[in-house]
Design goal:
Layout (H helix, E strand, L loop, with lengths): L8 H9 L5 H19 L2 E4 L1 H10 L10 E5 L27 H8 L3 E6 L33 H8 L5 E6 L5 H7 L2 E4 L20 E6 L2 H11 L17 H4 L8 E4 L11 H16 L3 E4 L6 H21 L2 H4 L10 H11 L3 H22 L4 E5 L17 H12 L4 H6 L3 E4 L12 E4 L5 H14 L12
Parallel strand pairs: 2-3, 7-8, 7-9
Antiparallel strand pairs: 1-3, 4-6, 5-6, 5-10, 9-11, 10-11
């Protein structure tokens, strides 16, 4: 199908619905597109081609994405019968026994599960360079990372292998690769998605499921499909009264928008990232919105201190609870230096101190929310720096060096909103002088995700990005 790249996921589904193309044709086209660029980008790591072909031939459910091939992030979400390595040698041969709730919804939506995409070990990085697979590379410049932890997904979508892929976000892992690859990515409000049945409360509400996409409407339709809670869900919020897809194209009104271009840790922004948010502010003003410069006031150092200890505890608990599924206990050599140290530190924590860390983290979340609450929307750079080169985020480094010296400064705009639970969307509104994407993050109040879709669609129309294609593409 020569015109595959001209369509977003909903556009491909429309072709299937109108019988202009068959699902098997989309599957074969997507496989050919993987094979045309994956040797350059290393973004796809686990094939599901035979099952995808069978699914396409046997018939797919009638849903919003019927017949559309989907790439799946190789982390967290279980797809029955498919390997889920979590980027780790320990899970290298693990096969999910049952579908996650999200996987069930994906199937009901008509998607065809084509293959898995590369992610860092347990998602604890913002580059996708696991030891068990080659590092994922950025199609805008393969010397640079597409980000993480949803880096394989973002590289694949940016390279036009498929128009949409699954993603997840515990500290910026949807928004950061969206920024690095020139895509749309939403970290939904806390409580919008479930991780059942594998996780009831991953990282105390900081982690959510989602996707990376080329268009706002694909992002909206995907979240309409996947956002729901099972009975007893820890953080569940009611479904919005208006489906997100109906929000796309609606007038967002004249908004009071706070612009933040100073990092909470005081670091200097790269000039391209500062330009990204300043240019976005000018565009918003031209659309009639009111822009006011503001700043974060919460204690970022304290936030990262408690979050790091919580992440170590959660990582240790996740590894130790996996022995029945993996079939053996973890042993030396199973993990990168960073994850091995996290396992050890997590096991050494005092329960009372851990409880206090969780309480402190949520109280800082209040402070983050309070900084944003005076505004309808807050805009920031998604990242303080343009995409770094492959190898910059090295998980063979000592934990403290990678975590505090390299990672913590990079997630200064994204991590706070995993803590606050507020929804955040990265939009591709700026490219650097050397051709690298630099996203802009949009934040609004909790459970107000629909406003982000209205505003994002307005910006997409005013400054289209769909036809911006990277040098390496299928």
């Amino acid at each position: 199908m020569q015109e595959f790249a001209k369509y977003d996921a909903m556009g491909l589904a429309e072709l299937v619905k109108n019988k202009d193309v068959k699902p098997i044709e989309l599957v074969e086209t997507a496989i050919a597109r993987i094979e045309s660029v994956n040797d350059k980008l290393a973004c796809v790591n686990i094939e599901n081609y035979d099952n995808a072909r069978a699914q396409a031939e046997d018939g797919v459910p009638d849903g919003p994405f019927s017949g559309v091939p989907l790439l799946l992030k190789d982390l967290l979400t279980g797809y029955a019968g498919m390997r889920t390595t979590n980027g780790s040698r320990y899970f290298e041969d693990f096969v999910a026994p049952v579908d996650s709730a999200i996987a069930t919804r994906i199937n009901e939506g008509g998607f065809i599960r084509l293959a898995k995409t590369v992610t860092p070990e347990f998602g604890y990085n913002i580059a996708s360079e696991p030891e068990i697979f080659p590092p994922a590379r950025n199609p805008w410049n393969p010397q640079h990372t597409p980000g993480g932890s949803s880096g394989g997904s973002s590289a694949a979508v940016a390279a036009r292998i498929v128009p949409i892929a699954t993603a997840s976000d515990g500290g910026g892992s949807i928004r950061i690769p969206s920024s690095n690859a020139g895509l749309v990515g939403l970290k939904a409000s806390r409580g919008r998605t479930t991780l059942a049945p594998y996780y009831a409360d991953l990282w105390y509400g900081c982690a959510v499921e989602g996707c990376v996409s080329l268009t706002v409407r694909d992002q909206a339709a995907y979240h309409d499909l996947t956002q729901y809670a099972i009975p007893g869900e820890v953080y569940a919020v009611p479904r919005p009264a208006t489906p997100y897809l109906q929000e796309v194209g609606q007038d967002p009104g004249k908004l009071r928008i706070g612009m933040i271009k100073t990092a909470a840790d005081g670091q200097a922004l790269h000039s391209e990232c500062a330009a990204a948010v300043e240019n976005a502010a000018s565009l918003l003003e031209s659309l009639g919105h009111q822009i006011e410069e503001t700043a974060y006031t919460f204690d970022y150092g304290r936030l990262t201190e408690v979050f790091t200890r919580i992440a170590c505890a959660a990582t240790a608990a996740g590894i130790l609870s996996s022995e029945p599924h993996v079939g053996r206990p973890p042993r030396q050599g199973d993990f990168t230096t960073v994850i091995q140290e996290m396992l050890e530190r997590g096991q050494q924590q005092n329960a009372a101190e851990h409880y206090q860390d969780v309480e402190t983290m949520h109280q800082i979340g209040w402070a983050v929310g309070a900084d944003c609450d005076p505004y309808d929307v807050v805009i920031t750079p998604t990242l303080p720096q343009p995409p770094h080169k492959v190898g910059h985020f090295d998980m063979s480094l000592p934990f403290d060096k990678l975590n505090y010296e390299i990672l913590v400064p990079e997630v200064v705009f994204t991590l706070p909103h995993n803590i606050s639970g507020l929804p955040g969307m990265s939009l591709p509104l700026h490219w650097s002088a050397d051709g690298l994407p630099c996203g802009v993050q949009f934040i609004t109040r909790h459970a107000n995700d629909g406003l982000l879709f209205r505003l994002a669609a307005q910006l997409e129309q005013a400054q289209p990005w769909f036809d911006k294609v990277p040098p390496i593409h299928a």
